[in-house]
């Protein structure tokens, strides 16, 4: 990890296409501005962690687990087909 000190009005570059400017420093809060190509995703760490958790939770459920759960609930489900690679 690179650690650098910057003051308000200063900035730094990441590669050739990302520019980070320190806009304001107020106590323990820092306001930054980021210029990057549109195709570059910029996420706060906690948002990325939530996204990753949600994606992990949304993984395909195995058919036998779903069948066992439906038996416990006494439901009749239509026959399921395994997901195709396009799903």
Short description:
The chain is α+β, with helices and mostly antiparallel strands. The protein is built from two helices and three strands, in the order E-E-E-H-H. The protein is elongated.
Give, in order, the helices and strands.
EEEHH
Assign the structural class, choosing from mainly alpha, mainly beta, alpha/beta, alpha+beta, or little secondary structure.
Answer: alpha+beta
Tally the structural domains: 1
What radius of gyration results from the CA coordinates? 23 Å
Q: Give the biggest beta sheet.
A: 3 strands, antiparallel
- Poorly predicted regions are none
Fraction of residues in helix: 25-40%
Q: Rough shape?
A: elongated
User: How many alpha or pi helices?
Assistant: 2
Total strand segments: 3
Cα end-to-end separation? 38 Å
- Strand order across the biggest sheet? 1-2-3
Task: Round the mean pLDDT to the nearest integer and report it.
Answer: 86
Beta fraction: 15-25%
Describe this structure in words.
The chain has 87 residues and is of the alpha+beta class. The chain has one domain (11-73). Helix content is 28%, strand content 23%. It has 2 helices and 3 strands. Strands 1-2-3 form a 3-stranded antiparallel β-sheet, with no helix packed on it. The longest helix has 13 residues, at 45-57. The radius of gyration is 23 Å and the shape is elongated.
């Amino acid at each position: 990890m690179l650690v650098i000190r910057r003051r308000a009005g200063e900035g730094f570059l990441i590669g050739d296409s990302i520019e980070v400017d320190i806009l304001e420093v107020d106590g323990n809060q820092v306001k930054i501005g980021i210029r990057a190509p549109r195709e570059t995703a910029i996420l706060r760490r906690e948002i990325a962690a939530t996204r990753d958790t949600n994606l992990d939770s949304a993984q395909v459920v195995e058919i036998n687990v779903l069948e066992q759960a439906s038996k416990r609930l006494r439901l009749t489900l239509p026959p399921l087909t395994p997901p195709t690679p396009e799903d």
